[in-house]
């Protein structure tokens, strides 16, 4: 998307650690107009109109966007509120749908860590780790110098979230004006984008197999065991892919 | 006693409800992830396993968003959604590796099909 700036790089390398961190933060921010970011804005535009249609006020919609930073969790929350579910039932449903966050964070931390990053920084960066920033990070971080990775990721992921809060407000505001056919297309943009980009972020054989298994098992388990479907997709698909990948590494 | 969204008639209750009902159950997994990652070596087999599980989960979420969606997409027949996805995939992997055009083309296909076949959106 945006190529290395020839005039910035040498001067930044000569600066002390603090300055160069800010440099990497800005480098991350420059990706706010990259395709994954724009596609996410469209999804949040769709989410904003969904909150409007669901009768959730604009401030609460913005609040849930930033404190949760996961569209599926917030969609489940709103669905639960509309159906009059208890707090406990919503908590359990959101928890089951969010298990993915743990392996996502476990796998991106080594890409971020560099030399001894503070735990509080990891916790902040983990909060802003969702599918878009995870795919982006797994793809972009490995080629960066270790000390620039955390600020680069922060620059992208944190500003992406802040900007998306504004987009939600916009979507809430224009909800009545957007025809439902367009709203549907906005909702489809996110899965479309991930289907196209996930293969390029999957470097190892086990990663690639896990995607194939996940695509197949996801809907299958959703039909057979609706409550536990996603968790089982991750465990069965992930373990199977890892197992085959392990065998391949040792025997081929 | 069951606690509901409208259990308490105070202005801050909806915000606390969101924190407890969506933010906490999402973020507790992120905190656990940071905790586990701190104990593992970067090239550990566990990291590779976590990557595989994460990839399978994300792929599972994506197909579910297409096949069992929420919101406006529910009104559109499954085959139309699948055709839209197929158009984007064939274009991107077969013709031209341009993400923006790929995504846009898939979305426009969906809009075109809904108007062409007059899908009722209520």
TrEMBL record, chain A:
Can you tell me where the transmembrane regions are? 32-52, 118-138, 150-170, 182-202, 231-248
Name the domain of life this protein comes from: Bacteria
InterPro entries documented for this protein: Brnchd-chn_aa_trnsp_permease
Write out the entry's keywords from A to Z: Membrane, Transmembrane, Transmembrane helix
Q: What is this protein called?
A: Predicted branched-chain amino acid permease (Azaleucine resistance)
- From which organism does this entry originate? Cohaesibacter marisflavi
Automatic annotation (TrEMBL), chain B:
Any Pfam family hit: AzlD
Name the InterPro entries for this protein: Brnchd-chn_aa_trnsp_AzlD
Q: Which domain of life is it from?
A: Bacteria
Transmembrane stretches in the record are 12-34, 46-67, 73-93, 100-119
Q: Which UniProt keywords apply?
A: Membrane, Transmembrane, Transmembrane helix
Please report the name of this protein according to its UniProt entry. Branched-chain amino acid transport protein (AzlD)
């Amino acid at each position: 998307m945006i190529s290395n700036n020839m005039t910035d790089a040498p001067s930044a390398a000569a600066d002390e650690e603090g300055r160069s961190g800010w440099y990497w933060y800005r480098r991350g921010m420059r990706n706010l107009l990259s395709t994954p970011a724009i596609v996410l804005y469209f999804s949040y535009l769709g989410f904003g109109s969904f909150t409007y249609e669901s009768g959730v006020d604009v401030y609460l919609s913005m609040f849930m966007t930033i404190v949760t930073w996961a569209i599926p969790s917030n969609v489940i929350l709103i669905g639960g509120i509309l159906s009059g579910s208890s707090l406990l039932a919503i908590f359990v449903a959101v928890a089951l749908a969010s298990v993915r966050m743990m392996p996502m964070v476990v796998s991106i931390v080594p890409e971020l860590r560099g030399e001894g990053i503070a735990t509080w920084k990891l916790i902040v960066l983990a909060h802003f780790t969702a599918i878009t920033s995870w795919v982006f990070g797994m793809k972009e971080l490995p080629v960066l110098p270790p000390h620039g990775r955390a600020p680069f990721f922060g620059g992208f992921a944190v500003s992406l979230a802040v900007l998306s809060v504004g987009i939600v407000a916009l979507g809430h505001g224009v909800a009545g004006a957007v025809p439902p056919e367009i709203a549907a297309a906005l909702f489809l943009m996110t899965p479309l984008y991930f289907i196209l980009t996930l293969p390029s972020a999957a470097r190892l054989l086990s990663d690639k197999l896990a995607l194939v298994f996940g695509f197949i098992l996801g809907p299958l388990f959703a039909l057979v065991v609706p409550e536990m479907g996603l968790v089982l997709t991750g465990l069965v698909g992930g373990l199977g892919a890892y197992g085959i990948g392990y065998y391949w590494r040792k025997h081929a | 006693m069951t606690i509901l969204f409208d259990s308490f008639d105070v202005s801050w209750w909806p915000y606390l409800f969101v924190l407890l009902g969506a933010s906490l159950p999402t973020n507790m997994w992120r905190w656990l992830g940071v905790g586990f990652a701190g104990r593992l070596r970067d090239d550990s087999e566990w990291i590779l396993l976590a990557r595989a599980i994460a990839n399978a989960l994300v792929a599972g979420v994506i197909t579910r968003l297409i096949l069992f969606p929420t919101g406006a997409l529910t009104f559109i027949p499954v085959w139309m959604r699948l055709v839209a996805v197929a158009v984007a995939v064939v274009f991107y992997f077969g013709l031209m590796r341009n993400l923006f055009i790929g995504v846009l083309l898939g979305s426009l296909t969906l809009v075109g099909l809904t108007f062409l076949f007059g899908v009722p959106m209520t």
